Amino acid sequence: MTTPKAPEVLFFDVFGTCVQQRRPLGDELSTAAAEALKSNAATLDEAVRLKAEKMTYEQWFDFGGNWNKDVDDFTADMKAKSNSVDWHAVDAYRLTSLYKLLRQSSLLLPDPNYPESTTTQPGSLFTDPQLLKLNSIWSRLPPWDDTKAGLTLLNKNFITATLSNTHETNMRAIIDHSSLPFQHVFTSSMFNSYKPNAKVYQGAAEKLGFQPEECALVAAHLGDLKGAKDAGFGMAIYVERELEEKEPELVGQGIPDLIVQEGRGGFVKLAEILGVKKD
What we know:
By secondary structure, this protein is of the alpha/beta class. Helix content is 45%, strand content 10%.
């Protein structure tokens, strides 16, 4: 593929691209369940205890994937109904979804009077405070090993900014948690929209005073990169991340202008490709 002119601005998707999603969810769920089996042992319903004890890491990993997908489906339904997304509502739904999926897995006992309640019943695997802590993983997602070092290098030659599907408070919590050195923070909520809607990409470019063709999107999701290219971005940079591609059917369709393959150094390798010199 022909590499276009180097951009002035690098916008970054965050979830899955800068911070890990899939494995941290599995890790957090598995660890929380093991701790709950001990701390809540005296009050656990016997069927709940037996079910939880049989759960493997792989099953908790899959549960995390289903949790993420359920929130994605909720967001997609909101888009379809109103052509907009309330990202604070999406954030709130993450906790609702967690309760729902745990009830469906027979790990939370249902309230017969309020089947959709977000309050745990006696005998359940988790208490409400434990679930609040578990849900907070979404603002504590750890960065990939190359994220901070790569961003530090890229900041030498480029303007860097987030551009992710969430609201600003959540984005800043993620950045602050891992001290990610972004120069600017943009989220879809600032443009009353959602990626891959063109107004998000174009609006972010305008905020920084650049034309879309002077900008690049760095992402681990081909659908996001396609949206950026369709909106006029000059470069789409695909940084492959383990287990993070949600639309594998887009592989091989010629969407990215530049690819950093999984396991090849991520953002640090990207900085090298783009001509950033190390000290």
